[in-house]
Amino acid sequence: MTEIEDGGLLAGVPDEFQRLWTPHRMAYIQAGPEPLREECPFCEAPKHADADRLIVARGETAYVLLNLFPYNSGHLLVCPYRHIATYDQATAAEVAEIGALTQTAMRVLREVSRCDGFNLGMNQGAVAGAGVAEHLHQHVVPRWATDANFFPIIAKTKALPQLLGEVREAVANAWPHPGR
């Protein structure tokens, strides 16, 4: 390790704190407190290249993308293309595809990240904790037996071992494609 890496040449007094470097979060800092609030982020994402919006798979009525504010590495969201707020507004075709994409997401995450389990869920409405209450989305959060540690409890911090682009590439490459 160089002196720059350990802070030996930098101004300030060394302390006992470790630093979590999260360079991917700079996009949110630069965008301001309410990024994409003029547009629905889940309506906007499919209009762009998959890698630019962290989309890992597209279906007929729904698609899958990485969460920009993940609870764990590989935290996916399954969203209908149609701008609807709650699950009861989804058509039978949307419900079926959201379910099928969720199952595939679980299989792919199990293969790519060797997770031990999952949290699945939909927060319906702002009062229920939905960050984007106006557009239905289901969370698929991979969990590991060893992921419960002191960071979230004591420091309200999550340690994410991979950058979002790396996770998107791994999941998208492992996603089954017809004719492959």
Number of strands: 5
Largest sheet: 5 strands, antiparallel
Which range best describes the helical content: under 10%, 10-25%, 25-40%, 40-55%, 55-70% or over 70%? 25-40%
**What are the secondary-structure elements, in order, as H or E?**
HHHEEEHEEHH
CATH superfamily caption? HIT-like
Number of helices: 6
The tally of structural domains comes to 1
Radius of gyration, rounded?
A: 18 Å
The span between the termini is 44 Å
Q: Per CATH, which architecture?
A: 2-Layer Sandwich
DSSP strand content: 5-15%
Q: State the name of the first-level CATH class.
A: Alpha Beta
Q: Helices and strands: which structural class?
A: alpha+beta
Strand order of the largest sheet: 1-2-3-5-4
- Quick one: overall form? globular
Q: Might you state the CATH topology name?
A: HIT family, subunit A
Low-pLDDT runs of 5+ residues are none
Mean pLDDT over the full residue set: 83
Summary tags:
6 helices; globular; alpha+beta; single chain; 5-stranded antiparallel beta sheet; 180 residues
Protein model, in words:
By secondary structure, the chain is of the alpha+beta class. The protein has a single domain, classed as 2-Layer Sandwich (HIT family, subunit A), CATH 3.30.428. The protein contains six helices and five strands; from the N terminus they run H-H-H-E-E-E-H-E-E-H-H. Strands 1-2-3-5-4 form a five-stranded antiparallel β-sheet. The radius of gyration is 18 Å and the shape is globular. The mean pLDDT is 83.
